[in-house]
Amino acid sequence: MLIRSWDRGDEDEWRAWLAEGRDFGLLAANGGPGHGPVLVPTHFLLDADRGEILLHLAAPNPLLGAVRADPEVTLAVTDDYAFAPGHWRGEPGTPTSFYASVQFHATAVPVEDAAGKAEILNRQLAHFQPESPQLRVAPGEGELGRLLPGLTGLRLTIREVRAKFKYDDKKPAAEQYALAERLAGRARPLDAGARTQLLRRNARRTAPAVPGNRAPS
Q1: Would you tell me which of 46, 73, 165, 183 could form a disulfide with 195, CB atoms 3.0–4.6 Å apart?
Q2: In this predicted model, what pLDDT tens digit does every residue of 132-142 receive, in sequence order?
């Protein structure tokens, strides 16, 4: 995706945004000759400190074959999007889309052994279902353990993170704030998330400088 200087997200920003509960994305792998990419919507577990992403798929999933042929993949998470009509944005009246998107370019390794798959599932359960700490997956034990042969784990080693927060930061701060109020007035189901990001980016731009923390000239 194209990232302009004014809508680039830094690491603290994308980490905080994902930590708010955004753990579902679109995983893309390269298809074979003559085919487009293989895409799979999926929950995932991000361990940013380790530089890895963990997930699992049903063993027959066609994405796994694509990964075995070419392990380079992209996982994209996109949210807080809204359409901004041209008459909101002043001259020349060009409409645009507001959205946040984080893309992880990674190398994927299938996890086939039962112990490795159980580890991935247990880490996912601890993240997604923390209210059930007693629920554990052990190979060959219980219903979950017996399901392991039908699953394949994926361990993604992150090579690059690209983050974009497209909320009109190139416009004067007052105009950006006015756009947030336009979203509040329209109040479509998806407008609230985009408005939150507009206001957050606007506040970051307009916050007073802290003495002694000036960037070097």
Answers
A1: 183
A2: 988 899 998 88
> Which of 102, 86, 105 has its CA nearest to residue 94?
86
C-alpha span between 192 and 103 (Å, rounded): 23
CA distances from 153 to 8, 123, 159, 168 (A): 32, 12, 19, 39
Q: For the whole prediction, is pTM greater than 0.85?
A: yes
Cα–Cα nearest to 99, from 121, 85, 77, 82: 82
Instruction: Give the total residue count for the chain.
Output: 217
CB-based burial, 201-210: b 16+ in 10 Å, e otherwise:
bbeeeeeeee
CA–CA gap between residue 10 and residue 3 (Å, rounded): 12
> Token digits for 135?
């629920």
Secondary-structure breakdown of the chain: helix, strand, coil percentages, each rounded to the nearest 5: 35, 30, 35
Cis amide leading into 92 (omega within 30): yes
The arithmetic mean of pLDDT across residues 22-50, rounded, is 96
Give Rg (Cα) of the chain. 21
Q: What is the pLDDT of residues 44-84, one digit of tens each?
A: 999 999 999 999 999 999 999 999 999 999 999 999 999 99
What's the CA gap between 166 and 198, in Å, rounded? 9
Task: Give Cα separations from 96 to 53, 81, 109, 110 (angstroms).
Answer: 32, 11, 38, 39
Cα of first residue to Cα of last residue in the chain, in angstroms, is: 30
